[in-house]
Predict the 3D structure of the following.
Amino acid sequence: MSPSRPVVTDDLEFCIDDLIRRVGSDIRLGLPLGLGKPVELVNALYARAQRDPSLKLTILTALTLEKPSPSSPLERAFLEPFLARVFGDCPDLHYAADLRKRKLPPNVKIVEFFFRPGSLLGNAHAQHHYISTNYTFAARDVFEQGCNVAAQIVARRDTAQGPRYSLSCNPDTSPELISLLRAAEARGERRVAVVAQVNQNLPWMGHDAEVGGEEFDLVIDHPRFTTTLFSTPKTPVGLADYAIGLHTSALIQDGGTLQVGIGALGDAVVHGLVLRHQRNDDYRRLLGALDIDARYGALIERTGGRAPFAQGLYGSTEMFVDGLMPLHRTGILKRQVYDFWALQTLINDGRCDPQHLTPAVLDELEALGVRVLRTQDFEILRYHGFFTDDTRYELGHLIAPDGTRVVANVADPQSRQVMARCLGPRLRNGLVLHAGFFLGPRAFYDWLRQLPDEERNAICMTGVDKVNQLDRNPRLYKAQRRHARFVNTGIMATLNGAVVSDGLDNGQVISGVGGQYNFVAMAHQLPEGRSILLIRAVRDTAQGTSSNIVFNYGHCTIPRHLRDIVITEYGIADLRGKTDSEVIAAMLNVADSRFQAPLLEQAKKAGKIDGRYEIPAQYRSNTPERLRDKLTPLQTLLPEYPFGNDFTPEEATLARCLQAMKARAAGTPKWKLLLGALTAAAPPDAALPYLQRMKLDAPQNLEARVARHLLAEELSRQGIA
């Protein structure tokens, strides 16, 4: 690497000129998924390409983030104050708006491997330039698309040796991509550049996320680039979500490993785990209300548990979601792992106490087959406190603090005697979480920034090449990821156990594969691992209600041969190792009862289940009404926002009202809505603050009068006014 790296500047136009000088006028810009995009640099590059048709700009990325965009005056009245408060000076990505509006210039191309779910359906440019790939192949595929510039936001920390940088939210693919670019540069095959843009609002994350300035060719650094981080406001958790989460929470084993996703279903799972740990009697009441013990007791005994977490959980997840924050705060996310396979194996087996090391652990290592310690082995063991800091290693020999020198061979009795004098009192620097990227609400970023160093250092942001697969170090990762439960969500599932998560049968892409396939496959590779896919049994649209459990579908994300556990609000389908007819029967048991009969008939006609088969009576009352009857008496345990939200109390009420108003307006003739508004009495005084917040206190047209009437009625229904 050049000793002149990096060039530090605050001038975006200088940066663009320098990039063109380095790589030419065909810029293929690799950007991180989600939060890590250097928005100001990207906007400046995009503006240059708009002005200069000779500059070709290809943006290679995933999950382009956009703030919610109001589609009506009513939505605008609700959202504008909220967006101003939550997003502050967070800049918008200009290419994203033009992509959505189909206004990209011909010299600009946007290539993504993951979309914000549903945001680009029907968008020809996005659909044409989508890359279907596993997350673990993303760096490779971005490189193969000709990427010659990599850029992302970073945090800076000044040290006596000069500035250090943290990839913070996105070490997921960047280090792997940069390595590919530098190798191509060294071979003389490609002119490349790597750019960092400093945003000091990013939480500092160390370990694999920390790099030196020599990693970059250009660093853009000025306080004006320290802007508000993009945040994802919380979504409400409904009763169906909670039913799914409670079933899932009973399959998580104490002392195990957890991966969980973002959104309402992820929050429902986490809330179930917190109740299990902190309010166990109430938790068991909820399990009883849903007949979870009665139906799935044997599976829970084999796979999960109901008791509070004594050993705790370790997190291994591509996305560090804010749901892991309450697990950390409540002492559930506490199982520490260490980076030496044999040591981790002994801890798992109860043959090594991390808090009290004794010479017997050396005998256990020898019994496990550990022989000569290499330099790397010694460094890892000393880092974790297994050996004292004043123990040294040189040319295959261990040197004790008193100078005694022995061959670093655990199988040698004399060497073990000397090693026993070199042991530390306890292990240190264990990790409770490995993750590839993070994205979440403001409170999550605040929490990460405010964590004491010791607790933050127990979190390792790293590459998905490590987190999403076993390939890099199978023996170690298998030991660390014991009793893994990889919890992901899908859109639909077939009766044969295949799951649809990312697209439609006409080829249109909803989101992307991401890392879901990686984790499902890895669950089958791990001796004690299970993949758990969460599916809402039905979806409600303006056209009516339809089943998300279908006989078959012309697209799948997870094929039937990787089927494992599927959970809906109505129960658990344990599919691993089952025959097709057993799988179909299990899937019918968790389908909504309004659709069970036609689904069963399809299976019989296809010859996939006995023609005399009948769904057991206990599974034929799978309806939303029955679910409400079971959970409503315990609803105080199931709050709408279990971990808070960015709304004011007034906004939270309005959000519920607006959702109900939208559904009512869609199902009511316009003349009836208008008649109701024209004949309605004046709203009560208690409704006035809400009407003022929505600018409906003095409606200026018929549309506004209808909205005022609907809002006042909905407030009354909710007992607000």
